[in-house]
Amino acid sequence: MNNTAPIGIMDSGVGGLTLVRELVKLCPGEDIVYLGDSANCPYGNRAQEDIFALALSMLRFLQQKGSKVAAIACNTISALAEPLALQVDIPLLGIVSPVAEAVTQSGLDQVGVFATEFTISTQIYTRLIQAHNPRLKIYGKGSHLLASLVDSGASEARIEEEIKTELGALLAHEPLDHVILGCTHFPIVEDIFQRCFPDVTFLNPAKEQAKAVISFLREPQTANHQEKGRLSIYTSGNAEPYRSVLARLGITECCDIATVSL
Ligand code: DGL
After folding, report:
1. Taking 70 as the threshold, does the pLDDT of residue 64 lie above it?
2. For residue range 8-35, what is the model confidence (pLDDT) as tens digits?
């Protein structure tokens, strides 16, 4: 592995930019190749075979770009990380395991997970958290629409309405004080979540995934120590939502946004 090779990051759309924000802070020297499959977003309402095939095309793209590791900045795809790893010749780092481990070390005895319908249906959070602590209770809720509303740049009012209805339904049932935003599109609008539910602490899994990427780079000594890395963004969809999410997340790295077909 080559330390000047880029870190590959993939998501169904703009959600993985939440991981880019954390990595730019923690390891500014790394070059990043980002791929968002917005033409096929949302993944979270699709059948498993579809998600698997789409994710495999993305991994092959990141591999062709010479990535030293592929960070799956998508909870939905991370639920399939094990079978995907058998198909490609590049190390994969999913987003669910690092936050699951952190939650089990947090001392919480219950936590909510708000994610896509697919992620909730796989029970990936329940399995990975309860593997460490079988007594920790997990309350999951899927949203059919929120990821696509965020990916397409819907109005704040529409996004707020969706959050209030969908997460409100879970919180009306279970008064939780910690909720994992288990879809990377959701922390992009964390301020809206916080406004709707001011007493809830929201956990952003990209923060733990970024630490996992750093530890991975440390092990085989593949970190890039140049002063400032380059961010290159590729999408199968429209570039405009990427520009507005970059601005919303405060990612000021100058970058190219290219359109690709997968
Ligand atoms: N951002 C993705 C996730 O973390 C999925 C959004 C979607 O395409 O449904 O699950």
Report:
1. yes
2. 999 999 999 999 999 999 999 999 999 9
3-state secondary structure 128-176: HHHHHCCCCEEEEEEECCHHHHHHCCCCHHHHHHHHHHHHHHHHHHCCC
Does residue 147 have its Cβ closer than 6 Å to ligand 1?
A: yes
- Domain interval for residue 108: 96-205
Residues 198 and 106 in one domain: yes
Check if 193 has its Cβ closer than 6 Å to any atom of ligand 1.
Answer: no
Cα 40 from Cα 29, distance rounded (Å): 31
Is the C-beta atom of 249 inside 6 A of ligand 1? Answer: no
Catalytic choice (27, 41, 74, 196): 74
pLDDT at 2 over 70: yes
pLDDT band, residue 1 (cuts 50/70/90): low
Which residue is closest in CA terms to ligand 1's atom 2?
A: 74
Is residue 195 located within the same domain as residue 100? yes
Please write the tens of the pLDDT for every residue from 188-207.
999 999 999 999 999 999 99
Q: Which residue has the tokens 């930019």?
A: 17
Ligand 1 center to residue 225 CA distance, Å? 31
74 flagged as catalytic: yes
211 part of a folded domain: yes
Residues 88 and 212 in one domain: yes
- Residue 119: predicted pLDDT: 98
Residues 115, 191 within the same domain: yes
Query: Which residue(s) pair with 34 in the sheet?
Result: 9, 233
**Residue 196 among the catalytic residues:** no
177 and 242 both lie in a single domain: no
Our answer on whether the CB atom of 162 is closer than 6 Å to any ligand 1 atom is no
pTM of structure: 0.97
